[in-house]
Amino acid sequence: MKINLFRILVFGIAVFILFIFFISLSKNNIYDTSNLIGKNIDSFEIISLNTKKKINDELLKKNEFTLINFWSSWCAPCRSEHKYLMRLKNNNKNLKILGINFKDKKNQAINFLLELGNPYYFTGQDTDGRISINFGVYGIPESILINKELIVIKKFVGPLNNQDYQSILNLID
């Protein structure tokens, strides 16, 4: 009788685990950031990549629009989007780009910007990924467009492309 009770318990646990497994497979895992649109960003403070200077969310209120770009030198898609960041920097006075370098080595990040150009008015370092997590970033590159009230206008998941570039220009004009 003891063995049958044990088998029933093991069988019940196995069925429960399989049930949870199949429920998780049917779950929609598409990353949806639409719930961020129209909401304020959380307060933050970040230290510069090059100096000991810090920037916080209050300083972003001086900008008409800010594009917060999460990037890294080891990220190939970050390299492909970089030309669009440079174009945004050079072609629009209403937009400032804040770069947040994600889990990178300082010298490699600096060399990346020396090689490709620096589109950022401030480049902060997120060495442990905590700041990025607070912004809802789950992979890089990602960019968040905010206005001077620190309200999220749009979030771009993945590397910026020409369509995103045009979209940003339309949103800030």
List the helices and strands and how they pair.
Layout: H1 2-26, E1 45-47, E2 54-56, E3 65-71, H2 76-91, E4 95-102, H3 106-116, E5 122-126, H4 130-134, E6 142-147, E7 152-157, H5 162-172
Parallel strand pairs: 3-4, 4-5
Antiparallel strand pairs: 1-2, 3-6, 6-7
Can you describe this structure?
The chain is an alpha/beta fold and 173 residues long. It has a single domain, classed as 3-Layer(aba) Sandwich (Glutaredoxin), CATH 3.40.30.10. It has helices at residues 2-26, 76-91, 106-116, 130-134, 162-172; strands at residues 45-47, 54-56, 65-71, 95-102, 122-126, 142-147, 152-157. It has a five-stranded mixed β-sheet. Strands 1-2 form a two-stranded antiparallel ribbon. It is elongated and about 75 Å long. 28% of the residues are buried.
Summing up helix and strand content along with how strands pair, one would put the structural category as alpha/beta
Mean pLDDT: 87
Tell me the strand percentage band. Answer: 15-25%
Roughly what percent helix? 25-40%
Q: What is the N-to-C order of secondary-structure elements (H for helix, E for strand)?
A: HEEEHEHEHEEH
C-alpha-based Rg, rounded: 22 Å
- The first-level CATH class name: Alpha Beta
Tell me the number of helical segments per DSSP (H or I, 4 or more residues long): 5
What is the assigned CATH homologous superfamily?
Answer: Glutaredoxin
**Overall number of domains:** 1
Anisotropy-based shape: elongated
CATH architecture designation: 3-Layer(aba) Sandwich
How many beta-strand segments? 7
Regions with little confidence, pLDDT below 50 for 5+ residues: none
Main beta sheet: 5 strands, mixed
The strand order across the widest sheet is 5-4-3-6-7
For this structure, the CATH topology is Glutaredoxin
The separation of the N and C termini measures: 77 Å
Quaternary status: single chain
